[in-house]
Amino acid sequence: MTALRLMMSLMVAALLAAGTAHAQKIKVGYWTSGFSLGYGSVMEQMKFAEKEGLDVEWVKFAEVNGPTRAIVPQTIDLAFGAPSTASMSIAADGVPVKIVLASQIAEAQIVVPAGSPIKTVADLKGKKIGMSPPGSATHAIASAVLQGVYGMKPADYSVVPGNEGRLAQFLLQKEVDAAVIRSVTIAQMSDDVKLTYLASVVEDWKKLTKGTAAPILAVTVVHGDYVAKNPEAVAKFIAAMRKTLEYGSKNKDRVAEILQKAANMKPDDAKAYAAQWDGAYMASFEAADVASLKNMQAIAKAAGAVKSDVPDSAFLAGPYQRSKSIK
């Protein structure tokens, strides 16, 4: 009996080793800050990609454009949560990358301090507006909304650029009259800070484009060589992202716990972050999502931020469609 048990143990070990040996390797890079932190941390800690049979090497970057730059020389195979504007720019420049998923919504609110004499977006003419720096997806989208929906040209207001933390500071110290700021940042601000909401960038983007697709802040980009050789691995990774999205939506307390450990967040900040999950993340690459990305690129080109169009071949929906059949 002992010999039989030993033989069975050896067989199980051999099977496990064989499974590991056949796991598809993939190097995944993501920015460990901003909103990509939440999606990435949950996916990594809960091992959703590994459960799909992938052998993942997680490569973390301290700078937002780090993953996008790393994919060019194939230091990584796939950039998760890569800025949409930067990803489309390198594709337009001829880098052989494929955009395979929209993963983060460019969610933001236009707000002013409570009690401000500014009551509508039209009142912002001649005022200082804090927003993400020029060249960022949020800046391009917010500028397009201000002009396309409210008729306010860039010359009609002054932009005070900054990251989310700085924008919150600008508001508190009244260094700006208004700010284009994300809901998670607002949620993490002190309860004593009262703000008046003037507009939703997402809703105004839909008005501008006459569609239902949200503006896209971040995408998943894979090097063309990798996806050509490993299409199933990319489909599995997208399936893992879709399952991460669903898990985070249903388990926000667990998301907060992961964020406290992964990012050393205070409990209240982690809960505020997790509460914004549904409005910040997505895992879709339908025709409407591709159209939204193309609209963003057209707007950036009209503003002079980019010079070339993204070739249609850079948008690859096949792995996303394949992921739908992976249960």
Describe the protein in words.
With 327 residues, this protein is of the alpha/beta class. The protein has 2 domains: 2-105 and 215-323, Periplasmic binding protein-like II (D-Maltodextrin-Binding Protein, domain 2, 3-Layer(aba) Sandwich); 109-209, Periplasmic binding protein-like II (D-Maltodextrin-Binding Protein, domain 2). Helices cover 48% and strands 20% of the residues. The protein has 16 helices and 11 strands. It has helices at residues 2-22, 36-45, 48-51, 66-71, 84-92, 137-148, 164-172, 183-188, 201-209, 224-229, 231-250, 252-262, 267-275, 277-280, 287-302, 318-323, and strands at 24-31, 54-61, 78-83, 97-105, 109-113, 128-131, 158-161, 178-181, 195-200, 216-223, 281-284. The strands form 2 sheets. A 6-stranded mixed sheet has the order 2-1-3-10-4-11. Strand 6, helix 6 (137-148) and strand 7 form a beta-alpha-beta unit. Helix 5 crosses helix 15 and helix 6 (137-148) crosses helix 9. The protein starts with a helix and ends with a helix.
Topology at a glance:
Blueprint (H helix, E strand, L loop, with lengths): L1 H21 L1 E8 L4 H10 L2 H4 L2 E8 L4 H6 L6 E6 H9 L4 E9 L3 E5 L14 E4 L5 H12 L9 E4 L2 H9 L5 E4 L1 H6 L6 E6 H9 L6 E8 H6 L1 H20 L1 H11 L4 H9 L1 H4 E4 L2 H16 L15 H6 L4
Key terms:
327 residues; alpha/beta; D-Maltodextrin-Binding Protein, domain 2; 2 domains; six-stranded mixed sheet; five-stranded mixed sheet; 16 helices; 11 strands; globular
